[in-house]
């Protein structure tokens, strides 16, 4: 999950601590804002601007700074319409070629490769999302059944831990785990000890395992961390519901399926919707680190394509076209995901 | 924060002890046993790869190639770490990682908290548009190559500035801090104002000390992110060996082992330094541990802060 996802999510699922009155709905807020605008005290006058010069001094330079580093780079998009050669100097000395690069990326041999890249990006993300969501829900339910609090806390500490390791380390651990037993590949060792396979499997050289490896490694790293939101949602369930169910003779599983799961369903739905907005934006490091020539048909994602094919091989123009494609589709996806979440009458960040 | 979030779990703790579901029925014993076993197995799965790497890194390099090391070194040796810290690159990379993390955390906390203070003041007239511009940067990214070109055009390639200058503010941390600052009672601010404190003094002397726990959380998020990053080194600073970082060196090692033909690495070649010899797999394990240990070391102390930070950050922007 990206930072933005988390914040949008937690907000969307109504998990916010009681810092703001929960009752103030969106419409009420908008009305309040409108009234505030009419309020003479909120009118922007030179007097008020001058009175707030300290606040302006604190924020405006940093605003310009942020604009420089986050929005100004858009001028680099000009490369998409050029035959860019780094040797020619700045982007103002380049040859303009109109939409040639777009044509080049989306058709012919490149088009075939790029389609594969998009499919890989989405396939890996969707698989990661499904496996990750199911895993986190199951783990949250099981952790919730642990009544021994110190034991529960230790379990949580251990399962959150991989979230803080870098992707480089995680990829390194995964490459060792998946290698031959003689290189420390304990997964092969385990499979052979259980007699599930006769010969060690070279997982990282088999294209057909790659998506699963990405999803599995993501699961290992983020499983615990992703339970936090579900556990918080479970804590918010009214204990009276469980007591009433007990009086009616409901057992453990009945309560799980008839109270806990339905109660956290809004959280699950909103999380799924919003995470699906990031489908093109995740999965960069693992495919980059673990991908190799043998599996590139299944491993290469958009970001890897941009870095490998664009930055490292000097095909800047094509890479920028791919980047623009990703950014625009991602904004549309994230925007509609937020809208969809809002439709569910929930609050979102923007 | 208000007491409501605390009160709820406390009330839940108090009541169920007397409720019938806490009687030890057969069903409960079976379920608890199975559940505990499963969760313990899961926890073992989370920890095993690290313990395994630690064991290999503490094992004699040539012996490690034989494989089959579990969570305990077979032939104990500190030779790998000796080699790692005698490699000038790794030695330099370690200090560069530390320096980079310290500078990034310091600048981030300073500037993010200043901006968060301004944006937390209800009377500030440009609060909304400025917040919106920052929040949108969480969703918009010009892309890898445009960002690279900007850094290049600013003349920051192969310089230490490329590590910290572009990232002094993260929108996510800004929202966390601003939300927390909003929760500081107006009375405190007003009374300081009556005593004649201006906004800069208010930020530095009144609000900052009140925000210490949240600043700690944000500082940790930033520190972990900076320590773990490698792409900035690859994109901006790979041309200057003095600016290399630990994660980047580890990434290069990983890449060369992936390229050298899967899995044949362990059997071929050896890395030598200062007259000592070890094998790539042992060396990589040792560097992995050096890159992971700072995180693993601070982690137990900070775990609960990380989680509370996530929850604070969730409040509406």
TrEMBL record, chain A:
TM segment ranges: 50-68, 122-143, 164-187, 227-245, 257-280, 316-341
Principal cellular location given in the protein's record: membrane
Locations listed in the record: Cell membrane
Membrane topology field: Multi-pass membrane protein
Positions of the ABC transmembrane type-1 domain: 118-337
InterPro entries in the record: MetI-like (IPR000515), MetI-like_sf (IPR035906), UgpAE/MalFG_permease (IPR050809)
Keywords, sorted A to Z: Cell membrane, Membrane, Transmembrane, Transmembrane helix, Transport
Domain of life: Bacteria
Region (Disordered), start-end ranges: 18-39
Pfam families: BPD_transp_1 (PF00528)
Gene3D superfamilies, sorted: MetI-like
Family, per entry: Belongs to the binding-protein-dependent transport system permease family.
Name of this protein: Sugar ABC transporter permease
Species annotation: Micromonospora solifontis
From TrEMBL, chain B:
Chain ranges of the ABC transmembrane type-1 domain: 94-302
Membrane topology, record value: Multi-pass membrane protein
Keyword tags: Cell membrane, Membrane, Transmembrane, Transmembrane helix, Transport
Main location: membrane
Location(s), subcellular: Cell membrane
Sequence intervals crossing the membrane: 29-51, 90-118, 130-151, 163-181, 202-227, 281-302
InterPro entries on file: MetI-like, MetI-like_sf
Pfam family, one: BPD_transp_1
Domain of life: Bacteria
Keyword Transmembrane helix applies: yes
Family membership noted in the UniProt record: Belongs to the binding-protein-dependent transport system permease family.
Entry protein name: Carbohydrate ABC transporter permease
Organism of origin: Micromonospora solifontis
Lineage: Bacteria, Bacillati, Actinomycetota, Actinomycetes, Micromonosporales
């Amino acid at each position: 999950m990206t930072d933005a996802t988390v914040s949008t999510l937690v907000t969307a699922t109504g998990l916010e601590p009681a810092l703001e009155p929960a009752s103030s709905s969106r419409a009420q807020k908008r009305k309040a804002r409108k009234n505030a605008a009419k309020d003479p005290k909120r009118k922007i006058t030179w007097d008020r601007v001058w009175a707030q010069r300290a606040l302006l001094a604190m924020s405006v330079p940093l605003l310009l700074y942020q604009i420089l580093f986050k929005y100004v780079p858009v001028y680099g998009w000009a490369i998409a319409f050029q035959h860019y050669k780094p040797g020619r100097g700045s982007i103002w000395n380049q040859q303009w070629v109109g939409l040639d690069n777009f044509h080049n990326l989306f058709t012919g041999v490149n088009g075939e490769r790029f389609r594969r890249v998009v499919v890989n990006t989405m396939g890996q993300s969707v698989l990661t999302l499904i496996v990750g969501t199911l895993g986190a829900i199951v783990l949250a339910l099981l952790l919730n059944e642990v009544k021994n609090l110190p034991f529960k806390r230790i379990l949580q500490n251990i399962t959150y831990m991989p979230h803080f390791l870098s992707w480089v380390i995680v990829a390194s651990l995964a490459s060792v785990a998946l290698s031959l037993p003689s290189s420390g590949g304990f997964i092969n060792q385990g499979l052979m000890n259980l007699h599930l396979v006769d010969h060690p499997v070279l997982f990282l050289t088999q294209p057909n395992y790659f998506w699963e490896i990405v999803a599995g490694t993501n699961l290992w790293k983020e499983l615990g961390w992703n339970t936090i939101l579900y556990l918080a949602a479970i804590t918010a369930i009214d204990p009276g519901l469980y007591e009433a169910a007990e009086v009616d003779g409901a057992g453990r599983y009945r309560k799980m399926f008839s109270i806990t799961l339905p109660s956290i369903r809004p959280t699950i739905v909103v999380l799924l919707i919003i995470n699906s907005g990031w489908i093109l934006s995740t999965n960069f490091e693992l495919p980059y680190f673990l991908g190799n020539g043998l599996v590139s048909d299944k491993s290469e994602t958009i970001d890897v394509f941009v870095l490998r094919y664009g930055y490292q091989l000097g095909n800047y123009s094509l890479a920028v076209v791919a980047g623009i494609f990703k950014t625009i589709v991602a904004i549309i996806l994230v925007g509609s995901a937020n809208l969809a979440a809002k439709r569910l009458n929930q609050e979102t960040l923007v | 924060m208000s007491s409501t979030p605390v009160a709820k779990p406390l009330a839940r703790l108090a009541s169920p002890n007397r409720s019938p579901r806490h009687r030890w029925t057969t069903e409960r014993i079976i379920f608890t046993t199975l559940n505990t076993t499963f969760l313990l197995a899961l926890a073992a799965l989370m920890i095993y790869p690290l313990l395994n790497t630690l064991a290999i890194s503490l094992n004699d390099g040539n012996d490690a190639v034989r494989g089959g090391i579990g969570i305990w070194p077979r032939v104990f040796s500190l030779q790998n770490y000796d080699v790692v810290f005698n490699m000038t690159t790794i030695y330099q990379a370690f200090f560069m990682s530390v320096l980079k993390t310290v500078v990034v955390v310091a600048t981030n906390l300073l500037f993010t908290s200043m901006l968060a203070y301004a944006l937390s003041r209800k009377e500030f007239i440009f609060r909304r548009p400025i917040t919106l511009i920052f929040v949108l940067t969480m969703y918009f990214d010009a892309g890898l190559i445009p960002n690279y070109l900007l850094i290049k055009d600013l003349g920051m390639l192969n310089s230490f500035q490329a590590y910290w200058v572009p990232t002094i503010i993260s929108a996510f941390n800004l929202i966390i801090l601003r939300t927390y600052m909003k929760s500081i009672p107006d009375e405190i601010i007003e009374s300081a104002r009556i005593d004649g404190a201006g906004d800069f003094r208010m930020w530095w002397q009144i609000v900052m000390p009140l925000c210490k726990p949240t600043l700690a959380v944000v500082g940790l998020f930033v520190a972990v992110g900076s320590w773990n990053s490698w792409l900035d080194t690859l994109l901006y600073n790979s041309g200057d060996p003095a600016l290399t970082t630990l994660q980047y060196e580890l990434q290069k090692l990983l890449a060369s082992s992936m390229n050298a033909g899967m899995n044949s690495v362990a059997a071929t070649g050896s890395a030598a330094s200062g007259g000592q010899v070890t094998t790539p797999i042992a060396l990589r394990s040792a560097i992995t541990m050096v890159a992971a240990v700072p995180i693993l070391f601070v982690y137990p102390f900070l775990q609960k802060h990380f989680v509370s930070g996530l929850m604070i950050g969730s409040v509406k922007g």
